[in-house]
Structure formats: C-alpha cells, structure tokens
Structures
1.
Amino acid sequence: MPDPTTHTRIVDVPSGAIELRWAAATDTGRRRDSNQDALLADYPLFIVADGMGGHIGGEIASASAVERLSAVAARGSVTPEDIEDALERAVGDIADHPETTDDGTGTTVTGVYLDLSDAEPHWTTLNIGDSRVYLLRDEAIAQVTTDHSVVQELVAAGRLSPEEAEQHPYGNVITRAVGPSDGVTPDYVRLDVVDGDRFVICSDGLTKELTDYGILHFLLENDDPAAAVSAMMQAALENGGRDNVTIVVLNSRVVEQAEAGAESADVAETTEPRVPSTDTD
C-alpha cells in the first residue's frame, strides 16, 4: 500500500472560508487476489466504489463509476443531477464490456461533497450499496448513510439485531448497486457545515474488520487524515483483511473572515509530507 498523503485546500465562502484536509488509500487485503475497489478524493467530491461481479467485472464497474464522477469533480461543483448523469454513463460503460454481462456485476457508490450552490454551504452525502459515510462531530461518531443490504432490511424490520447482523450469512448481499440491471439514483442526506467535522468514507472491507467504536478510536488518536487512514488500514489488515479495504478521511475547519483572507493568500492547495507506511505486507 502506498503511503497516504494529506492534501489541503482553502475554499472561500461568504462568511469566510472552509479549510479541507483529506487523505485516501486502498488495499487488496489479505484474502483477495485483486482489488475491485476504486476511490475518488478530489475537491469537491469524495467517493468510494466497491465493485462486484467477478475479478474483471467488479474492477470495470467501480473504475467506470469513479472515472465518470471524476469528470464531475473536475468541473468544481456538484449537483444530484450531475451525479445521476455520471452514473447513467457509467452503466453504459459497464454494459459495453462483454466481461460484465453477469447479472451480479455492479458497484457501490458512496461519498460526500461540499455544496456551495446555496447562500450557506452544506455537505451532501450520497449512497448506493453498502459502503458507508461516517461523521465525527463533537467526539461522537454516527453512520450517515443507510446500507442497501439484506441484513439492514432485516434490522429495520426488527427481525435481526445489529449484533446478529454482523455474523449473518447474507452479510455481503446488497439490494442496490450501480449496474446494468439497477437504477442509479442514490440516497442523499444534507448536513450543515460545522467546524471540526470529520468524515470517513469506506468500503465494507473496513467495517468488516473495525467496529464503529474502532473507527472513532483511530480518528480521535490521529488528527492528521493520512495518519488516521494509515492507522485504520493497518488495523483492518491485522484483523484479517478479508476483503479489499478502501478509506477516505476528510477533515474540515471553518475559518472566520479575517483569518480566511490571510490563509487563502498563502495556500490554495498543498500536499503535506507523507506519513510513515504502516502496511505490514
């Protein structure tokens, strides 16, 4: 696993600025022969895609979704219409490959973006599948997205406890994905921007190996995004690494008007030094 790097960007808003710092990494894990995960960490859009449908099909599906969403991020602003148009195009890309004709081919798409289209900036999370977005706020962690999975439906119906869901044999069966036989409209959640917000976007390769408390622990122990990504990745691999593991950590800080002027003069986007590698392979 290459060393994750922390990137920094100052985003001007009417009240001042928002400082964003982020890092990302993906690893094949201990049990898989290939990595079917893909990620996008490019302001203003941060995405994890977990492909499925066999060695080739899963890689093509996740890579197609990320490639199309990268073009959205490059425009500098994001809307739900942009997301859904990109995912429709990704479905066409997937269908163009004869290797992906299996009904099970598809990919999760989960992430968050900073929306500046209104007078007040806000976050928007999006989700199709069972990759997740977590929010750390006031030293408490919450899962923002809702899994599209068989076990989540059983939990919501009261037929399964969260503890039982962790060991359920259908734990890997999702009910929605981006693929030839599925729709491409994500669930969206709008969140206010609060100073100190920290997001974790991850594939289920992380949540199979770390509890929510474990994710919280590593965030509180590591303020730097690259250090947090490295610590969580190392723990996931040491706990078994049964699946591909992909992690994006995004920190935000609200900067007041006077401070924003000084900071934006110094930096538009920087890259901080790499942290030491924690990959034990």
Note: DSSP finds eight helices and 13 strands in the chain.
2.
Amino acid sequence: MKKAPLKMTKSNRLHSITNTVLVVIFSIVIFSCSKDDDGNSKPIITDISQEIKDLIYFQGDEKAPTVLITIPGGPDTEFATDLVDQFSGLKDILTVTVHQAQTLNPDIVAGNDITLTQASSFNTESIEMLSKVTTYFKDQGRTVYVLGLSFGSFVTQDLIAKKGIDSADKYLIVTGRLDMNDAIWQGAAEGRNGFFENGVTPIVEADPALDVKDRNLNRIGAGFLMNRYTQLFNTISDLSNVTYIYGAIDQAVGSLTTSEVQFLESKNTNLIAGPGDHDTTLENFIVQGFKDAFGIELQQ
C-alpha cells in the first residue's frame, strides 16, 4: 500500500471536478498496460456492437486492447463527454463514458419531485448499464480500467458493491467517500444542497433547491451517498486494484474519516492523501493517480 502526501462546492451535486480536469493539459509519455501472454487463445475483439454504442460515448480505436471507462462528476442530465475527449489521445486505449438513467432520459427528473426510492431505482438502472458495458469489454478479453471522479466515485463504488471487484481490472477513485455523513445525504434526499466546512463539518442549506430538476438531481445523489460502502465492501478481501485519492479539506464530500482510511488500509487499497480541497486534489494528483492505478504516465 502506498500513501503519498497530497497537497461540492456549496452543493452535493459534484460537477466541478469534471470541469477542473479540462484545465490540466496532459501529454502521454509512457504507456504500459498489456496483459501477459499465456499462450492461450483469446476472445476475438470486434467493432463495438450497436447495442453498446447506444449506451456510450467513445473515442479511439474500437478494437483497442484496453478500455478506459470514465465516470464524471454530477449528477446531471447532460451526457458529459469532456473526460473522454480529454483522454482520447492515450495510445492503444479506447476511452468511454456510459449513460446514466437521467442522461439517457432527462424527463425522469423533470416535472415532479421524485422520492428517494425512485432515485435509488434510477441509480440501479445506471449501474446495470455501466455493468453491461464493462462486462461486454471484459468478455472480449480486453483490459478494463474505471476512472471515477467526484460523483463518479460513488457510481464506481456502487458498481464494485453490486457487481463485484472483478467488474474491471483496475480502478482510480478521486474525491469520494465510503460512508457519507447522514446530515448530507438526508438533506440531499429532501432536495437540499450541502457542503463541508474545512472538509470536516457538514453544513446543509435550510431550504430545498428552487428548481425541481435540481431537487431531483440532489435525490439521485442521495441514492448513492446513503450507502455504507465500508459495510458493502466488507466481504471483499482485497482492494489492491483500487487507487483512492482524497483531500483533507474537500468541501464537496468531506475528507475521509479515520475509520474510512483504516478500512481502506485493511483492504490493501493504494491511498493517495493530502491537504487539498475538492478541485486541487484532482489538479495536483491525477498524474500520480494514473501512474499508480493504471501504469500510465502523463506529463502535465
């Protein structure tokens, strides 16, 4: 396990980290992620089926041996493709993002307030789509990496919890939480925004968001934030294929607590920790994260 020093906005809708990555300009220096050749026959990699294309946005060679699935910040109704475009220059890698229920059908969060139960059901649909895509590429014998940023961290964790640690080969989780403070997810379930003062103290706004879509997107977030991932991961003996980056003063999701850190350490997770906030954690450590998690070296 490595632990290196690291250097929701006023909302529990975690958009900002997706935009932040766009100001960090990368060029690829070294890439090494091929599987060992054991001499056995391998499944044939073909062009992507139309059924899968209907669920994704992608850049790169459709027959690339490695697939990087990016899960951006949010939640939102817009199908965010920025991360795919940003990392589209990676050699021999197909870069992908997958629809979520509310991006495939934005009407589900428009018009009327939804319940937390409905939000959780929509999230289950999102995980099923994500799992369908990861399984499709894994079944072709490709190496699959998952990058979850901010809100995408919770989606990534839910994929692992519901579909297993072997859903992908390696994971990079940036600015997430395992056990979100009750006040934050309960406030989000009521459509209210929340944040963390100094990355520690949860603050929830008194009134729900004015727009129904914003209230419902908060509930989509709550459907993931309410989960206790230390409990859901407890049956997984080893998380050494997960690299987890977090900041001490993360205002959007809060810093990992001592118990969360100890849990990840007990599962051999590769931890990268430091003093930054939500955005600077990404800015300062995405390069190290790619190297540690995927064996890909990027030059800033």
Note: Residues 1-12, 22-37 have pLDDT under 50 and may be disordered.
